[in-house]
Amino acid sequence: MGCMKRAALLASLAVWLVAPGAALAAGGPVPPVQDGYIGVPGVPYEYAAWAAGRDTVVRVKQAGARSTVPGLRLAGRYGIPGVDYGGTTTGLAANGRTLILADVPANLPPRTTRLLVLDTEPLAVRARLTLPGWSTVDAISPDGRWLYLIRYASPNVSDYEVLAYDLPAHKLLAKPIIDPRDRDEAMTGFPISRVMGPGGRWAYTLYMRPSRVPFVHALDTTGRRAVCIDLPSLANADIGNAHLGLGPGGTELQIQISSVTRTVINTRTFAVYAGDGGSARAPARQVAHIRRSSGGPWELVLLLIGVVAAGGAQVARHAYRRRPEPATITVIDPRLTDDA
User: Fold this and answer.
1) Measuring CA to CA, which residue among 42, 46, 19, 16 is closest to residue 29?
2) Whole domain around residue 125: which residue ranges?
3) What whole-number distance in Å separates Cα of residue 209 and Cα of residue 185?
4) Structural domain tally of the chain?
5) What is the distance between the alpha carbons of residues 275 and 273, in angstroms, rounded to a whole number?
6) Reported confidence tier of residue 70, pLDDT bands at 50, 70, 90
7) What is the CATH number of the domain that holds 326?
8) What pLDDT is recorded for position 55?
9) Helices marked H in 249-334
10) What pLDDT is stored for residue 320 in this prediction?
11) Cα radius of gyration (the chain)
């Protein structure tokens, strides 16, 4: 990504961190992105949320094209959910039919989190979600059914949980995606790079931690499960500019630093190998999507320092169509819902 965009993202990160009670945990809080397009392989259209004063204009364009068509004007400030500080975003399902927009909060931490669920053909707001407290969007399943949220239960960075929301059923599952065996193990980190597996089922994210080794978080967005893979071979590496890539067929996850493949992960077995193919670590066992964080303010400062140092006609159909009033859904505390 360009230096200007990276600088802007780092500036927004600094604002979030100095805000009272700001939290940092796996998957967030990365601010929603405005004026940047999101697309998925095989879908001919890309979408962006543009700031328009106090409103937001959702624009649509054909993939790779320059010309855009304003599709929706929305009251309030919304953006495409961000997932890493390389500028990667999420919220568009792999089938291209569902798009999630996240409210850009004026104050941190916000008392409520507002999300918009959009249909893309025709472009229209399907539902407005209001959740208590502060949540960020982490991923969405390929069919648009499961939306993954990181919920901060308090301003304390050690108090958060990952929840799955069933979009068609309008149901937030009560049981957090946490493995009880690993509940107390810290996994706070900075999301450096995200890449999606073939078909959009697996979301792979590389995290940096100043006090421990980096790790990759692999989320199965269809099966509601995850694998966390520690990377001890990169313990002394500067991964601030690292990025993830997929090998042919998506069977290998490659971690590149300065254009050199340093580590390879088998996406079927989760075995970790050195870039030259030598074995670097035994296969990682399956663990929870998120473990509790024990990071404090000093860890936040160190993380920030580490990142800064690292340096056509069909589209027109979307515009100005008369649309039915969307459903407004207030999501109650997940502990009061029934688990599926």
Assistant:
1) 16
2) 3-336
3) 13
4) 1
5) 6
6) confident
7) 2.130.10
8) 96
9) 297-309, 313-316
10) 36
11) 19
